[in-house]
Fold:
Amino acid sequence: MRTYLLIDTSTSRTSVAIVGDNKTIFLSHHDGALSHGEALPKLVAEGLKVQSSIDEVIVGMGPGTFTGLRVGISFAQSFAFARGIKLTGVCSLDAIARGIPDEDFFVAIDARRKEIFYARYTEGVRVGEPKVCQPVQLENLNVPIFGEASNQFPDPVAFVSIAESGATYTQPIYVRRPDAYPAPVGVKFRPMTQLDLVPAFAIEKSSYGHEAWTMAQFKEEFAGKERMYVVAEKAGELIAYAGVVNLAGTADVLTVTVADGYRRKGIGRELLRRLIDWSRTQKCEAIMLEVRVGNEEAIPLYESFGFIEISRRKDYYGPGKPAIVMRKELV
Amino acid sequence: MKNSDALVLGIETSCDETAVGIVSGRKLLANVISSSVEEHARFGGVVPEIASRAHLEAMQGVIAKALSDARLSIKDIDAFAVTAGPGLIGALLVGTSSAAGLALALEKPLYGVNHLSAHIAVDSLDSDHKLDPAIALLVSGGHSSILQVNDLTSDVKTLGSTIDDAAGEAFDKIARILELGFPGGPAIDKDAKAGDPDAIDFPRGLTLARDLIDHKYDFSFSGLKTAVSRYLIKTPDHIRADVSASFQEAVVDVLLKKAIGAAQETGIETLIIAGGVAANSRLRALAQERASKAGIMLRIPPLNLCTDNGAMVAAMGSLAVAKGLAPSELGFEANSSSGITKPIF
Ligand SMILES: [Zn+2]
Structure:
């Protein structure tokens, strides 16, 4: 039988266990959201006093608060490398779910900024990858929620069977993009004016081809009531635009369009942030948007802001081109 | 192991460089650096979360490369050293946790070392000169200070430091205004080569008689930054290279005036210039000129060891081992703002 060193630092709890011969030889933890770095070496040293020969390290890959998560993963990687033994990563939420007998439930842990990382489990199996949202969004669904809020933490002993089941990860499960992206250098953001319509329309056409709005639609959308448009420009050239409308207390994102060559530079993120800020000033209770199924650039961006999928619309972008409808609460 | 030639592996992750160095005593065996600076260049500064993610991604590869460069196995290492502060806390923790994993796995001592001390300790490598006492001018993106190094591993006094921006920070900010890109130090250094350092008389912060009463060895670069901005607005047809050269001259002039002044006043005859800004070509040239005039022995580490690296951390660890100092306690706390008074954690 193999002897496992098991480590989890994804929540405010730092947990260490050693399991051998299907028996828990050592199990200990330390509570403190900011002290993973100090707690982990001490806990592991205690465990090694009980059992110093280890065959494999299994570490919780998250999701979790970024800094704590990296303490566990970097420690585990180095330990396994120095000993020349195998390292396996598993999803930390799975190790909370293991102890729960319900048929259908959520597991959720604190993600800071008033959000939670969560995953849904039906009949003991996780449905999809972990995501992030506001607690109220899960509470509205009337499905039981287990996790950090009810004092349930990943049980590292469960890592052994999770790893054996093959649900393993080689990279940290961050879910959110880095939240500290500052505004892109040299890019100016300002409200859109009539004068921007022509260059903006050029970006619209080259971005969406025959699905683009016509110039007439474009003007009409721009001139409508209760809405806000913002543009980004670099060296005097228009490179992106975005708009949002307040529909009776719910904000609806009209467009976020960044010119080819300027994507993946944090410009869309900055535009979206402005749309959300404006919607808050309008006292909107939520903000919604549609995004094409499979849009691998936009969906993670929206998720990183806490948007979650609430429904799908068939043929939204034309026949056979469905949209995901996403929503973020603003209260 | 003989303490004087112990194999020490050092890890550095305080900012945007993931770096590992290996030394045997004072001999440098490997120095591997992976930088996420290109990622940060898009934002004009280091983004902590991006840096921390990059550290974790790069760490194992950098350790493996350093060992292979040194033709060693991890099991050969006698002691580990790691930067414990100052620096970005999330970035530091990737390094300290990696180092703790290695040290615990192999049951070897671990030294948490001060990043600033390590910048000076790198001067010990590949030579056997006496390190201390010395005056150290430590200039980088995060720090600008003048230190009195009585004993590098236990007794370092801060004589003065910047009261606002660090010298490297000033370079970054001016480079941004001049649209020279990030990081600003090398960009201005290069641009200044075609300019006249005496073209514009930019102010030398904290050098007036009344400043010297309270701030004899302190620096201030924020006034200089304002002066450059004002000059650019008032002089639309300015020559950029002249601005770069004159700005650089103002920074370098003050740094050296105060550092050499400290050496003369304390009677300490060695001046070490360390930190990223020590890579600046004008600082190196003018330091040489002024130190020899003042009869001061000048030491500046090789260019590639001035910016953040793992060799400096290994060098600092190695000095601690050679002195027979106790390793750091298990789970020592990384400290983002630790001063130089704590060389070993
Ligand atoms: Zn440094």
In short: Chain A touches chain B through 38 residues (CB under 8 Å).
